[in-house]
Amino acid sequence: QVQLAESGGTSVQAGGSLRLSCVASGLTENVWYMGWFRQRPGKEREGVARISTRDSKATYYADSVEGRFTIARDNAIVYLEMNNLTPEDTAIYYCAAATRPVVTALNPAQFAIWGQGTQVTVSS
């Protein structure tokens, strides 16, 4: 079984930057994709970015974060570098793992394993 542990969430001013980390442990060889999702207050969980565990250049971003956020992987650690943050980025950020070889965009239903989440608060 794979376990995920996020860290790095905190409060930051608008325009600032933050880096989230997700450490994966356990049977990570069964993981094909790692992703970051978020749940903003009063909204449904939405995909932010994902990265292939077989090819670190194979990434995918939500339109809302394209050009501001960067996902990267270093062995069993996945990072989400977030720049030019706005109050709209305030959310609980979750790390997730997909154990299937094909995923569609950032469909949370295709990610079977989830971390506990880390809170990011952006103030204006």
Features:
124 residues, 4-stranded antiparallel sheet, mainly beta, 7-stranded mixed sheet, single chain
Briefly, what is this?
With 124 residues, this protein is mainly beta. It is built from no helices and 11 strands.
Number of helices: 0
Can you give the helix content as a percent range? under 10%
Give the termini separation. Answer: 40 Å
Low-pLDDT segments, ≥5 res: none
Task: Provide the gyration radius in Å.
Answer: 13 Å
The total count of strands amounts to: 11
Kindly report the average pLDDT value.
96
Alpha-beta content class: mainly beta
- Tell me what portion of residues adopts beta-strand conformation: over 45%
Indicate the overall shape: globular
Main sheet summary: 7 strands, mixed
The H/E string reads: EEEEEEEEEEE
Task: Report on the architecture of this protein.
- With 124 residues, this protein is mainly β.
- It is built from no helices and eleven strands.
- It has strands at 2-7, 11-13, 18-26, 33-39, 45-52, 59-61, 69-74, 77-82, 91-98, 113-114, 118-123.
- Strands 2, 4, 5, 6, 9, 10 and 11 form a seven-stranded mixed sheet that branches.
- A hairpin with a 5-residue loop joins strand 4 and strand 5.
- The radius of gyration is 13 Å and the shape is globular.
- The model has no long low-confidence stretch (mean pLDDT 96).
